[in-house]
């Protein structure tokens, strides 16, 4: 399979597992990802951008400080700007953030649902998919 076909297959997996959408930033270097994919609702994306949330998003802070996977409900990083509450108000009620790779080339991705928390099995599948995208 070609790298592009591998990427498309991985994104189809993420689409199936994340009904409200996701943001994937692959190989973040010098504060910008080499590639990114985003399927969050347009209204949320515009609100997030217009408020400059990327610079103070607790999911990004968490992803830059460690690797692994964390449900937003268990995020050990303060959210003084209530970004996660704003996300919930836009339908991103339950979330998950994953972080993978060395700090000089980190992949950070977040995923959202509106109906329930991500299950442990879903987290494992999403994490494996992000590691595969990072490797591609």
Structure write-up:
The protein is of the alpha+beta class and about 140 residues long. It is built from five helices and five strands. It has helices at about 5-15, 40-50, 60-65, 85-90, 120-135, and strands at about 20-30, 30-40, 70, 95-100, 105-115. Strands 2-1-5-4-3 form a five-stranded antiparallel sheet, with helices on both faces. β4 and β5 (about 105-115) form a beta hairpin. The mean pLDDT is about 95.
Q: Looking at the chains present, what oligomeric state does this protein adopt?
A: single chain
**What distance separates the N and C termini?**
11 Å
The shape is: globular
Order of helices and strands: HEEHHEHEEH
Major β-sheet profile:
5 strands, antiparallel
SS content category:
alpha+beta
- Report the strand count: 5
Strand content: 25-35%
Mean pLDDT: 95
Gist?
This protein has helices at 3-17, 42-50, 58-65, 83-89, 120-135; strands spanning 21-29, 32-38, 68-71, 94-100, 106-113. By secondary structure, the protein is α+β, with helices and mostly antiparallel strands.
List the helices and strands and how they pair.
Blueprint: H1 3-17, E1 21-29, E2 32-38, H2 42-50, H3 58-65, E3 68-71, H4 83-89, E4 94-100, E5 106-113, H5 120-135
Antiparallel strand pairs: 1-2, 1-5, 3-4, 4-5
Helix pairs in contact: 1-5
């Amino acid at each position: 399979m070609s790298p592009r076909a591998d990427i498309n297959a991985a994104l189809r997996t993420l689409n199936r597992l994340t009904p409200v959408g996701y943001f994937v930033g692959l190989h973040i270097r010098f504060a910008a990802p080499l590639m990114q994919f985003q399927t969050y609702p347009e209204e949320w994306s515009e609100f997030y951008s217009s408020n400059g949330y990327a610079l103070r998003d607790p999911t990004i802070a968490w992803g830059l400080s460690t690797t692994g996977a964390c449900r937003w409900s268990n995020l050990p990083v303060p959210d003084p700007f209530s970004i996660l509450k704003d996300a919930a108000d836009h339908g991103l009620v339950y979330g998950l953030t994953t972080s993978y790779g060395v700090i000089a080339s980190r992949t950070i991705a977040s995923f959202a649902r509106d109906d329930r928390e991500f299950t442990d099995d879903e987290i494992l599948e999403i994490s494996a998919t992000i590691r595969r995208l990072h490797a591609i």
